């Protein structure tokens, strides 16, 4: 039986599990990408230190020639930074494409092996829908935001550590403030994630209306019964409500984010100013280092805010994917079971068959007794929801009755191998 899905915030276990699968999808590209990220962070730190010495040399030296080595070193570091910045997006895109393909492939393969009960339960069906449709959207945004975030973290840390040349309290204040901001941003992203999960059914219904209005096989019936405007109005209602609530959450997150970043920058700049003034005379190179490091940190914090919110918003895809891949597949009949009779002699019999869908309060079928002889043609007719499709599934062996049993030539189908 398919277990119901409990919606929770994505845990670090899910994120680490997903990150491991991303690295496994393309280990060589992942290794090169991580190496370049570390080189970029080291170049950023070295650039700050060389900038300090360059400015001090230019201010104190009588001859320009004494500053040439520092200027050359600064240009070399700038070249390294630009070269790495050119290759990082290419590697990031390759990693995203390869990992995205692997994750979507695994999800589709798993979906094809699930029992039909997985699609009967509403929450389980929503889970499958989020994973399969998210292969083209959520997984792309998740990896893009996650990889960008990882690229910014080392640069932010090295800039904060370099500011420790002024005072040990500076990097502690910056790193502590950055962690606090990330906590608030995770809450923002979780707010969006919860909204998207709650609207899974409505989004699926809106997509279904679009499918009915645009596909060839349904166009004739839509026009015959004149229900096109009704379907369009239902689609408008669902989409309008979704967009209204989604924009409200986005505005709420944006306003909170701007305020939080402003407070962080104000506290960091104030701490730098107070510490510098307390030391009396501040050398020109150190002032240049502080300004450049503060610029790097501010730019990094602004970018990371966007990446973290987007990452957490789609991070539930990792939780959904893990839960889907860990679910039990449809049981394969053991080799010891009885082979299916061929050709049939007595036919198929249903003995007091009943079937109830998971989570339902009533039976879709009850007290069904049928005998279908070999070669006999049987038409199943009835009103909508009478159980015609369910009965056909039981006859075809796609579903097992919840009560009663089915026999072929007197042999219970539960003992017959597929």
In short:
The protein has 418 residues and is mainly alpha-helical. The protein contains 12 helices and 4 strands; from the N terminus they run αααααααααααββαββ.
Please state the structural category. mainly alpha
Give me the oligomer status: single chain
Number of H- or I-type helical stretches:
12
User: How many domains, as an integer?
Assistant: 2
Order of helices and strands: HHHHHHHHHHHEEHEE
What amount of the residues lies in strands? 5-15%
CATH superfamily of the largest domain: ABC transporter type 1, transmembrane domain
Low-confidence runs:
1-9
Nearest-integer average pLDDT = 79
Question: What does the model show?
Answer:
By secondary structure, this protein is mostly helical. It has two domains: 315 residues, ABC transporter transmembrane region fold (Up-down Bundle), CATH 1.20.1560; 68 residues, Rossmann fold. Helices cover 70% and strands 6% of the residues. It contains twelve helices and four strands, in the order H-H-H-H-H-H-H-H-H-H-H-E-E-H-E-E. It has a four-stranded antiparallel beta sheet with strand order 2-1-3-4, with helices on one face. Strand 3 and strand 4 form a beta hairpin. Helix 2 runs parallel beside helix 6 and helix 7 packs antiparallel against helix 10. The longest helix is centred in the middle third of the chain and has 51 residues. The two termini are 19 Å apart. The N terminus is likely disordered.
